[in-house]
Amino acid sequence: MDKAAVIDIGSNTLRYAEGRLCLNGLKLTTKKLIRMTRLASGQQESGMLSNKPMQDSMQALLEFKDMAKEKDLPIFCYATSAVREAKNREQFLSEVFQKTGINIDVLSGDEEARLAYLGATGGRGGLIDIGGGSTQIVNDKGSISVPIGCVRGREIMLDQGDFDHQRALLEAELSKKLLPFTLPISDEYTGVGGTITTLCALHIGLTEYDGALVHGTKLTLKRIEEFIRLLSENCEYRINHPLLKQRHDVILPGAIIIAYELRLLNKDHITVSDADGMEGYLLHKLAAL
User: Fold this and answer.
1) By the 8 A CB rule, do 82 and 132 touch?
2) pTM of whole model > 0.90?
């Protein structure tokens, strides 16, 4: 077997793509399809996956299953922090299997980090991966994973006074989670995840996302801070920009997270990658067959 479909069940989105092994590793043969389900919504307080996000995710999985079935492709499906940390994860996994027949591979934080690193960098340099529910920092010697991403960042900031106070609360939580670790240090870092790729798309002036244009672009800390100021002061821009229709309420906490981590790592820029854990996971599964 050298072709398959891959599904990423994230804290903010479910994503689908198809790919095949080739001489240089893995090639995706479709664009990544995205369905915004906010699976981690409300989990910060309850520790549980809520019913509506679970049902929205189920519908997306059924849709993706039909796409793979049309081409007679096997499906490799994995889940990250929202499912990994949910008190009711077994209920969700069981219900998904009963209704779709899809087995979900729940990745540990370290597995999530290493597969994103493989997919985005091929094992070179460092990586920062900001998801909906967690953030990973990786190099070739080790990785750390902490349970704060753009969705959980939003829940930390929500209704907590003015923006400066909200940012201070999120950065305090990041400090609490990150500072006890020895950081994986590299000369250069690649960035993946919807926050980083969307900020990059805004930076180069796109109104419709194009991964080929985003891939390999450098995004500076100065530019990220400019976006933080714009996004915090201009609600109309944040709500109405075509790229932010489904991300307008989580892009700001995500931007704060990447800015904080770049300062922590003493870096003034990051190179953006459209390839990420989806490529790494599918390559890992196909290569093992």
Assistant:
1) yes
2) yes
